Amino acid sequence: MRRSILLASALATTLALTACGAGEPSGGSSADEGADPSAAPSASGSLTVWVDETREAAVQTAAEAYEAESGVDVEIVQKNFEDIRADFLAQVPTGEGPDITVGAHDWLGEFTANGVVQPIELGDKAGDFIPVSVEAFTQDGQVYGLPYAIENIALIRNTALAPEAPATYDDMVAAGKKADTKFPFLIQSDGDKGDPYTYYPFQTSFGAPVFEQNDDGSYRPELALGGDNGEAYATWLGEQGAEGNLSIDISYDIAVEAFAKGQSPFVIGGPWMLEQFQDLDLAVDPIPAPGDEPAQPFVGVQGFYVSAQSANALVANDFLVNYMSTSEAQTALFEAGGRPPALVEAADAASADPLVAGFREVGAQAVPMPSIPEMGSVWSFWGVTEASIISGKADDPVKAWDKMVSDIEGALG
Amino acid sequence: MSRARYKGADAGSGTFSGAGFAVKLVLIALVDALGVFGVLAAWRAGSWGILAAMVALLVAANWVYFTKRALPLKYILPGLAFLLVYQVYVIGYTGYVAFTNYGDGHNSTKEQAIDALLVQNERRVEGSPALPLTVVESGDGDLGFAVTRDGAVEVGTADEPLDAAPDATVSEGAVTAVPGWTVLDRQAVLQRQQEVTTLRVPVSDDAADGSVRTQDARTGYVFQPVLEYDEAADTMTDASTGVVYTPNDEGQFESADGETLPVGWRVTVGFENFATAFGDDRYAGPFVKILLWTFAFAVLSVVTTFALGMFLAMVFNDPRLRGRKVYRTLMILPYAMPGFLAALLWSGMLNKSFGVINQVLLGGAAIPWLTDPWLAKLSVLGVNLWLGFPYMFLICTGALQSLPGDVYEAARIDGAGKWRTWRSITMPLLLVATAPLLISSFAFNFNNFTLIKMLTGGGPRFDDASVPLGHTDILISMVYNVSGLDGSAPRDYGLASALSIVIFVVVGVISAIAFRQTRKLEELS
Q: Strand (E) positions, B82-234?
């Protein structure tokens, strides 16, 4: 009995192996190669790059140039930008991650704390980039990303409705009311979740940045948005909400649509909006400050990270430092995504467009978004509190703001 | 299947003859081929756990299908295998993660953490120039670097510090030939790229001068490690301060005065996650509210969808109604739509100032559907009713159509009215058929994360709580938040797994009790 089982199994297995063997010349060998991911790269060198939909074509072009010259296989994998951060963190340790991924500079703190990225030595090329873009990717003296775009918000003005750039916030509201449009100006929010990113320039004008900044521009995890300045900002938010100038129901889509229809002379937003406003005559101006200090928006820098577990680190670095840092590659990325390039040469070329130049000028005065991991704990309290103050749900703006500060301190531990 | 045929097939397998046996042999051969392929793939990838599981399954499959003693197993083995792989393994792995500190700062293995710390803490010597670099190979196959420093070419390997090579040929700034060395071309460099990136060529005999390394095999820089790892002692030493870091129980390197290095690794931490889950008093207040709402939401969702679905099923089951098929098809539409998409659409339609509901249907009213605590709860239930009733409608229609007509006839003869017939016959018989599905619907809604996340995101927030939770958050969305998976706190998969297990136990116990209760119903029929 037992022997017959063994015999039958052996027969079945032999049959299976013979079947495999028969197909060896054509199917078998290719299947073998496909099943062994580690063998292929060491033989010829290959590169896997995660990239989002917008930038896929631009990276593809650079990749083709690199493939042609080096003979390295570059595989471009399209991912949702929102998924990249978590997927990269989860997959790099398993060895399934990419060699290179696109990303934003504010992920850096989390990436280094989890050991999933490795430093990139830009060498003398570092000087070819706009300083803030390299600074944003620098932590503890090491550069971890190759920057390709800088993004920040500014005031976009419909010149047909408002010929002059407003000097102050009150000027802007007055000009908006004079234009007699549906909204005096537009700033997006996200319902009761708020949008502290877009509102940040207003907050900085009251002298209440989110974290304390070191001399070199990096942040340290000490909250700075409380105190008298923060409370003044909260009070102002409450007043403007009550007057109807600020509303949490204006979502991004609503703001863009209303501005495109000429329902307001001003919208506070980024270069990613411009595509929708092609029929309008536009100017880009600094954001007018409601407080005494300049209104500084956040600067976000986009770049490429190299995985700490990359088996192709040499190719990855070569591709980034020598092919993605060229003016052509950076310009192609700019044309694909609309964000001003991080490379000075490409940025200068792009600045021929006055709108790009306008954003770049505002960006020069802006502050980098904190990349320290503590920032994650701030967002969720921050936006909701701003929204509840603007909507009038919080009766006492100062009290709501103070509670927010203590809640964030509780979350930071 | 008749007993006789079964016997015949059995006899065939015993004598290795018959068409049935041949078919079986071929099918098992296919399974074995797949299995052996999987085993080989696992072998090459070094996944020993998968390899062991594959071998065990393969042996089990061969035994089961070639023995006479395991007839029931022949039928249930495929299902059992999938149950093991997709259910038991997942639950087991979640259970394992619940006892580790997997999360931000403890994202991978110790080896990877050490690698990351070393690579993060190897610094370019300040002010050192960029050195044009060529990868070369010595006669006995050792890799080396030829760099141009201060106009002169120098060559060295990992063991031999940089030494002048005056006879080297340089063209366009790059070394093209060095006597006694082979200059590697690009392809050769790429083939040995791991060796090239890990190669450190000392600048001189003094280690303090640093060593040359390259990241792209074109340019080299002089680097100096800040952290040094001693494999024998398993310690990290800061070269500049001399502080020694040793591994602690939390999966981090820790110095004598309690300072830890940033990158840690995964370790098991016992019941710590469970203690954290219930030990943080910031969560105590919201937790009770959320627990109550989760039960209310799950129960009300089942009750409302079942009530509406059953009502519609009975209406459309009436033969007097014309065009029933058209109506029935229309009824199924919400069911055919992806749930997350529908929830997103509803969240737009319920927007206070710009939503269709307020603007068009209610003539510009400003009803805070999603921002008022009670209205938001109502909206969640309403949308879930819209999403869920087609399912109940379907199963009720099916159950109604299979109800025996003679019972109704008997009821009519006994003089029962419509209400009495429904209460005493239709309802109990319907429940017998649908109760297990109602229980599974409860379990599904208890964890209906998609709806909450897409419709309200848990909002509106609790005004009196110090954690980012809201009035429509259910337990599973609370887990998502507490464990930082939504980005509002450092990610903690260990905590998330621990909380998931707690929810699993709650749902499991309730379902078990409910199934026990349904047995009473079955006695009716």
A: 122-124, 131-137, 143-149, 152-157, 163-164, 169-171, 174-177, 182-183, 201-202, 211-214, 219-225, 227-230
Closest by Cα among A15, A10, A1, A12 to B10:
A1
CB B190 within 8 A of CB A72: yes
Q: What is the pLDDT of residues B413-461, one digit of tens each?
A: 888 888 888 888 888 888 888 888 999 999 999 999 999 998 988 878 8
Picking from B10, B15, B26, B32 by the largest number of A CB atoms within 10 A of its own CB, the best residue to mutate is: B32
Q: How far apart are CA B41 and CA B39, in angstroms?
A: 5
Q: How high is the pLDDT of residue B525?
A: 53
Considering the domain delimited by B124-225, tell me its CATH architecture: Beta Barrel (2.40)
- Domains contained in chain A, CATH given: 45-151+300-368 (3.40.190.10), 154-298+371-412 (3.40.190.10)
- In B386-445, the residues whose Cβ lies within 8 Å of chain A are none
The domain spans of chain B are 3-98, 124-225, 281-524
Which of B25, B43, B109, B193 to mutate: most A Cβ within 10 Å? B193
* Average pLDDT of the residues of chain B: 86
Predicted confidence (pLDDT) per residue in B462-503, tens digit: 888 788 888 999 999 988 888 887 777 778 899 889 989 988
B254 near A CB under 8 A: no
Distance in Å, alpha carbon of B116 to nearest chain A alpha carbon: 5
pLDDT average, residue stretch A287-305 = 93
Which residues of chain B are within 8 Å of residue A263 when distances are taken between CB atoms?
A: none
What is the reported pTM?
A: 0.78
Q: Are B144 and B170 in contact (CB under 8 A)?
A: no
Q: What pLDDT is recorded for position B188?
A: 84
Which of B44, B62, B215 is the closest to A9 by Cβ? B62
Contacts of A109 in chain B (CB under 8 A): none
Q: What is the ipTM of this complex?
A: 0.75
The structural architecture, per CATH, of the domain B281-524 is: Orthogonal Bundle (1.10)
* Phi-psi category of residue B83: left, alpha or beta, with phi > 0 → left and psi -120 to 50 → alpha: alpha
Chain A contact for B12, CB < 8 A? no
Q: How far apart are CA A298 and CA A291, in angstroms?
A: 17
Chain A contact for B190, CB < 8 A? Answer: yes
What are the chain A neighbours of B196 within 8 Å (beta carbons)?
A: 314
Give the mean pLDDT of B312-335: 84
Q: Could B104 and A123 be called an inter-chain contact, meaning their C-beta atoms sit closer than 8 Å?
A: no
